[in-house]
Structure formats: structure tokens, C-alpha cells
Amino acid sequence: MDTLHAVRARGVSKCFGDVVALDGVDLDVAPGQIHGLVGPNGAGKTTLLGLLLGLAVADGGHLEILGTPVGRALAAPDGVAGFVDGPGLYPSLTARQNLAALAALRGGARTAGIDDVLDQVGLTDVADDRTRGFSLGMRQRLGLAAALLTRPRLLVLDEPANGLDPAGKRHVHGVLTRLAADGTGVVLSSHRMDDLEALCSEVTILATGRVVFSGPPGKLATESRELDYRLVTSDPPAARQVAADTAGIRVVDDAGARHGVDRLVVRALVPALDELVVRLVQARIAVRELTPVMSPLEAAFLALTEQQETGR
Amino acid sequence: MTATAVDDLHDLNDRAVGAGRVSVSRGYRFELVKLVSQWRIRLLVLACWIAPALFVAGVGQQSTLPTDTLFGRWMLATGWAAPLVMLGFAGTWALPLLTSVVAGDVFASEDRLGTWRHLLVAVRSPRRIFVAKSLASLTVILLLVAGLACSSTLGGIVAVGNQPLVGLDGHLLAPGDAAGRVLLAWVCVLAPTLALAAIGLLGSVALGRSPMGLLLPALVALAMQLAQMLPLPVAVRLALPGYAFIAWNGLFTSPMQIGPLLIGIAVGLIWAVLATALAYLLFLRRDFTDLTYDGSGRRAITAGLLPLAGLLALTVTVVAVATPSMGSGIQQDKVQRSVATAFAHLYRLQTRQLNRPDVTEAQLRASAACNKGAGQLAAQGPGNDWRCVVSWHLPGIKAAGTAIYQLDFTADGRFVADGDGPKEVNGYFLVRTPTGAAPNPLWQFDGNVELLDTTLEG
């Protein structure tokens, strides 16, 4: 039994009739790791999260959660919490009553615990309001609070940032980061690449039920094809010339330069980009900003989406 | 996947998750909290515990009585008539609607709110979720039924009083006896109520968020009531799960007509068990990861409705084989016996009202000669063209007294006998008693015949 992993999946497959939702998926999530799942609609993210939460049974492969083989059981082991397709809340109950009912259900109705999780997600002020009037972001935060009540060792969240305003997002990010620091494994899916890049130490990209990438987001930059980078320097015309003379670099947008703006966009692989920076420095051109126009994760996601569209 | 495989899978599940499971009692409390937090449930509870008493008090202030309802004509005579009037109303309208609102929505509400996955992650056992939900909805339904019964009884006793009750065959039931039979009647209708509740569970599971799931118990109850109005064979009537809503009438005759009531209760309970079992199997087979699932597939019909149709056919066959009851059950000899018995009991009541010398039923030797369609039709079956001539004797008087009644028979065996003279006996609505005018018990009275030939004559 491997207790080092919050999740360990090997060759997991799941079909719904003729539709293959998951096809030989491998996944490793360490305790204390925030692991992102990304992929186009229908890639199998929700199915995979459903397997982790015990809402469905895998047709094949091997799945261990918190060191316990899941096998054919329809429920995940103790210590797993979370939600898919939005949190389940009862609109006729207040936020506090929703949590109290859930705590009583799990056998640990602790008022202090309820107040604590409400505070963690920033819902103390509306604790005694019925959830019927809650916005999507408030519902998401209350769903997270409900998951926290059980003190999970594996937290599984589907699109937790949906509908969150900046303050709500800060609360959620803070909670997830603290949980991970305390050793809880977190698996979350999201279409918001900025969230995933800010939170996740590893991501898995799924496409049509298969894993097409798994690893740190930074690794995507080295593995992916050419990306567009925005380059801001102290001498844009000279920088454009240096870029044009550097092998592997293409200037794809100098519209900014034409309009007197001191930036240009270049397309390159990471090694060529490194070479460009060295040459700019040697030419005594200060590099004020060099950032991807689009994150490697987002670029990979779009590439996958385009492939799917093309394949249709 | 077969039912056995599903059970095996859930056994495995239960063993595997061990301490992570939520007990049925906790799940039950959780479901109760959710149900009671709904405004419509709170309003229903309030209505069931208050409205019947208000209704009874209101009737007490009126000069007219709900005489078209069984025992309605006695509502100003005794408080024990009120819970029986309420029982008749409940069997026709209130209980089907209450079971629809509670049991018919207990699973569908999770579909509507999108909370199934949340609930499964929390409870970790579909089996326990089903048991907890079923028990919670049953508790609320029992609370509502208890409210109807207690409120109407208390309202009747407080507003009218604790007087003897006139039974369905005219004999007087002492208050204590009436109380026992009223309680028994309410307990008996729990069987068809459970059947409707189970059909509600089945509809809620099988049809998901579709309104048809919510309406299923009410529609089934309506269909059963329509069927009871048709000239169907007795075996078919008794095989319907709602027959105990009618058969409780037999508790208020002497001797009690127990046979049809027991059959009605048994059929109701069998329907309750089967519909619950079907709902359970459908629930365990459900794919909770499929967001688009609304249950209204072909499998829900084949697995949910066809077995109930099969059960109906089976119960009809069993009742038909066990009892020689393929006719209407309303025959001339039964009608004559029933009318004569009721007349004799009520004549004694009238005698006491008028302060005349008491006579016994044996001394009266009442008999009835009844025909249908002025003798042009076979004297059997329901209809409003029954006519009876009742004869009786008084001690010391040679000539027999006679009175005429027009009978309106419904297919379920109930009748209303309307006096048609002579005016001294049954011609007037009121009689003059030493204490003032009082309703004439012989002017119009309710009665019934037992559709099955199971009760021995007393």
C-alpha cells in the first residue's frame, strides 16, 4: 500500500455506453500538492473527479485514494471531500444551517468549527441568511466551507473559482494554499488558467479521456511548441533588429513600434528566447519586460481545443 | 446489471467504506431537517392540525349539514361524526395530495436542486440515503395524518360533544365504542396511504424532476376513485390499493364488515411494499454522474410501472379466485336486509326522541321488500331506481306499519335511503320532541351493503 500518494491512478478507464470518458488515465497527487486538471469540455475532467469522490466506479485500471484501493466500491474512503458540478446547498436553510446539518450528518456538530470555516471562506456576515439568495460565488465558497468541515486529507473541487469576485478568489486561494501547506492533497479542475498557474504545483491536461500532459506548469513552456512573448526594451527599433537577426526568433507583431509604442511580440521556443535575451544584453539594450502573451497552459489548452475542432 | 449484482456491489461498498458511512438515524434526521425547513411542509403541518377543527367549528354554526358525506348528517348530533367526515374527505382528496407533496417530491427535490452528488459524497451509501428519505417522508405523512385525525376529533368533541354515534346501520355506538372505532378507521386508512406514499416514492425516483413524478399519487388516487364509480366486479374493486379508503365504513355496522376491510388493507400494504422495493431498485441503478438524467426513460416505465400493472392483475386474480365476487355485490336480499336493519335501529332512535314506549328490534320484526326500476329490471347493482317498502310491527297492534324509501345506490355498496311517506314516520325532515324540533332519523339515512358475502349476520 502506497501511503505517499493522496491519489494514485494507473490506467483508469471509464465508459458511458459507447462513449469513452476516460482511457487509461494515470494520475499522481502527493499530499500537500495542489494538482490542476485542465482540458476542453468533454475531456473527462468531471468523470475523473467523480471517480475520486466515489460517485462512479472505474471500469478498468487501478485507483488508490489516500493509500486505499478504491476497487469497485461506490464511495470514496474517509478523508475525501469536495464537489463536482457546483456545491450542493439547500436553499431553505441558512448558510449556518446547511453546515450544521452536514456536520450533524457526519457526526460532529461543532459550532466553533462551523464558525471557523465560515470565517475562512469569508461568509461570516451572511451566515444566517438563507442560501436561496446567494450568488454563484457565495455558493462556491459555502461549498468549500462544507468540504472543509470534514477536515479532508484529499479535497476534490470542480471549477471552484466560478463566479468568484476578486475578494472571494483571494479567500479561496488562501484556503487552498493553507490546506496544502497542512498536507491536504487538492485536485481541482478549472478553465481559468491564471488560477491554475497561481495555485497548482502540477497540472494534468486531458483530451478526449487521455492524459496529454502531466507535470509542473513551467514544464509546459519547454515542452510546448513556439509561444508568443511580449518584449519591452529600452530601444525598440534596435531590439527589433536584434530579434530579426537571432535564429529561431520571429517578430510577429511590431504594430506597437509603428505607432511609437516601445513593445513588440516575438514567437520562439525557450532556447531561442534565451539566446535573444543574451544578445540584447550584449547590445546594451535593457530588457524591461519579457512575458508570454498567453500562458503555456492556456496555449496548450487552446492547441488542444483547436485540434478537437479540426478533428470534427 | 442484475439486482443481485447491484446488491453485491453495495454490500461491498458498505464493507469497504467502513467507518466513513453515515448511519441511517443521522441520515434520517438530516432528511427531516430538510423537509421541515420547507415552507410548504410547515404550512401543510399547520393546516392539517388546525383546519379540520376550524371546519368542524364552522359546520357547528351552520343550519345545513354536509349530508352528501358519510356521517355528515350526524355532525350536530355527536362530536364523533367529525373525524369520520374528515376521514371521508381525506381519503378522497387530502391524503392523495399530501402524499404527492411529501413522498412524490422527496427524491425529485434533489434533482431540482442538483444536490445528489453532494448528498452521496456526504452519506456515502445510496442504500442509506433511500432508507433515510423514505423514513423521513413517512414520518411527515404520519404527522399530517395524525393532525387531520386529532384536530377533527378534538374540534368535534369540543364543539358538539361526546354523544353516542349513530352507526352506518342505524345502531347506536356508545362514546367509548365510537372513539375506538374512529381510531381504528384512521389506522386502517394508513394502509392505502402508505401505498400512495410508496407510489409517490416510485414516481419521485423514476420520473425525477418531471412534474409527473409529483402528481403520480394524486393521479393514481383519482384513477382509483373513477374506477370505484364504474360498475366493476367486486374482485376488481377490492384489488385496488385504495379500497380501504372505502372499506373502513364497515367498522360502523353491527357486526363489523371486516372481510373487505382486511382485504383492502392487505392489498394496500402489498402495493406499498412492492412500490417501495421498485423505487429502491431503480434508485440503486441510477447513474449519479450523469447531469442530464431525469429518470423518465423507458427503463423507468418498464421497471417501475409495468410491475405495478402486473400486481394489479395478480391481486384481481387472487381476490377473484378466493372469493366468488365477479358480480356487483349489490343484490336484492342484501339490500332488503340492510334497509330493514337500519330502519329498525333508527325507529328505536325516533321512538326515544318522541318519548314513546321503547321497543326492541326483535319486537319490530322489520322487513323490507325492494325492487329496482319498478320491478322491470333485475334487482341488483347500483342505481338510483331502487325502491323499498319497509314493514314493521308494534307490540299490541295487529296491523303492520309500512314506509316507502327511494334508494340511491353507488357502485361501492353505499346508499342513501330517502323517505317517501307516510309523513308521520319518514315524511318530514324534523320531528317534534319534548325538548323541541330535532332531525328525523327516518327521513333520510345512509347505509351500505357488504359487497362480499363474508360477514355473518348478527
Order of helices and strands of chain B: HHHHHHHEEHHHHHHHHHEEEEHEEE
The topology string of helices and strands of chain A comes to EEEHEEEHHHEHEHEEHEHEHEHEH
Number of strands of chain B: 9
Helix content of chain A: 25-40%
Number of domains of chain A: 2
* Whole-number mean pLDDT of chain A: 86
Biggest beta sheet attributes of chain A = 6 strands, mixed
What's the number of structural domains of chain B? 2
What portion of the residues of chain B fall into strands of 2 or more residues?
5-15%
Helix content of chain B: 55-70%
Percent in strands of chain A: 25-35%
Structure explained in plain terms:
The complex is a heterodimer of chains A (312) and B (458). Chain A has 312 residues and is an alpha/beta fold. Chain A has helices spanning 45-52, 95-105, 111-120, 136-149, 166-181, 193-199, 217-223, 236-245, 255-258, 270-282, 296-311; strands spanning 7-16, 19-29, 34-38, 60-65, 68-69, 80-83, 154-158, 185-189, 202-207, 210-215, 227-233, 250-253, 263-268, 287-292. Chain A has two domains: 7-215, 3-Layer(aba) Sandwich (Rossmann fold), CATH 3.40.50.300; 222-311, 2-Layer Sandwich (Alpha-Beta Plaits), CATH 3.30.70. In chain A, the strands form three sheets. Chain A has a six-stranded mixed β-sheet, sandwiched between helices. With 458 residues, chain B is an alpha+beta fold. Chain B folds into two domains: 3-221 and 271-298, no CATH class; 332-448. Helices cover 58% and strands 10% of the residues of chain B. In chain B, the strands form three sheets. Chain B has a five-stranded antiparallel β-sheet. Chain B has a two-stranded antiparallel sheet with strand order 1-2. In chain B, strand 4 and strand 5 (401-409) form a beta hairpin. The longest helix of chain B has 34 residues, at 126-159. The radius of gyration of chain B is 25 Å and the shape is elongated. The termini of chain B are far apart. The model of chain B is unreliable at 1-19 (pLDDT under 50). Classes of the chains: A alpha/beta (312), B alpha+beta (458). At the A-B interface, helix 1, strand 6 and helix 2 of A face helix 1, helix 2 and helix 6 of B.
